[in-house]
Design brief:
alpha/beta, Nucleotidyltransferase, domain 5, five-stranded mixed sheet, two-stranded antiparallel sheet, 5 helices, 7 strands, elongated
Length: 192
Amino acid sequence: MASKKTPEINGGSMADIAFLVLVFFLMVSTMDQEQGLSRRLPPLPAEDQKAEDQKVNRRNIILVKINSNDRLLAGNEPMDVSQLKDKIIEFLTNPTDDPNLPEKEMKDIEGFGQCSVSKGVISLQNDRGTSYRKYLEVQNELVKAINILRDQFAMQNYGKKFARLDEEKQDIVKKAIPSNISEAEPKDVKKK
């Protein structure tokens, strides 16, 4: 009696097919990249600059704080996120020359001339328990306030919104309306 052998399946070609399928999926799929907030860090102070020259006048800083319950405090006033933009615009422009709001200094901007520039700095502080959603809402309002001021300056001086200006004019507007947002290390208020 002859024994019947079961034919074997060639595994070599299966490995080749699996490899080709893997390569195909690697080639056609995209890897999601995490996106963060783009911020330009301030330049380092000159080595010969004294420490007292680096200090910022208290009236030139507005503290924007977010606690672990996502409550907002801007300039010692509790407020809703929807009110923050107007508060920052008032702070940076100081329309009534209030001695409690930031100073302005005349700067000579190349390609434009003399311009009154606010010395205002926005200091953002948040708690470690602050939700990322609230943090982004506050960031968006801060950036929106600066963008509104840049659009106003661009319309007043060039007749176009900031985004429609050429790069040279955008640089002038950025120097006239700087984005001075400082972020402090998150704090853990529960920790003692």
